[in-house]
Amino acid sequence: MGRLVAVSNRVADPRNHAAGGLAVALSDTLNKTGGLWFGWSGKVVDASRGGTPGEGELHQIQAGNVTLATVDLSREDFESYYLGYSNGVLWPVFHYRVDLADFDSGGNLNAYRRVNQLFARKLAPLLKPDDVIWIHDYHLIPLAAELRAIGCGQRIGFFLHIPLP
Fold it and tell me: Does residue 81 surpass a pLDDT of 70?
């Protein structure tokens, strides 16, 4: 089996104690097997500092035998992709709380697509032919299709961590 490439909305540094379930599980797995963990850096860049929607700087650090590769998000992408569509539409709908979903902002869906395309563009050059890509959660539902659209042929798995209605 090739290298494990975990992709999640946010990356936790496996050298630090992680509080969330996903961070704990991925940190333990990747620390044992090695691999690449890719996702958002947690950093939001304002437009005045070069934060262009759909573009984000790639950062890589080595944490033991795990490579952490992260991208920054523009303020617009953070607010529309993360707060808007992911947590303002998908999370409530998947939890049967349609009454809480905010369907009014069409730009949020565009940002959701744009960030998944950004992740695909930034991740693709880091991949090896025999990698196994493991995508996590509702923030990244379209990522596998975006990777295929740009020619990535690696095996891809997806795990949804919330209820599927």
Answer: yes
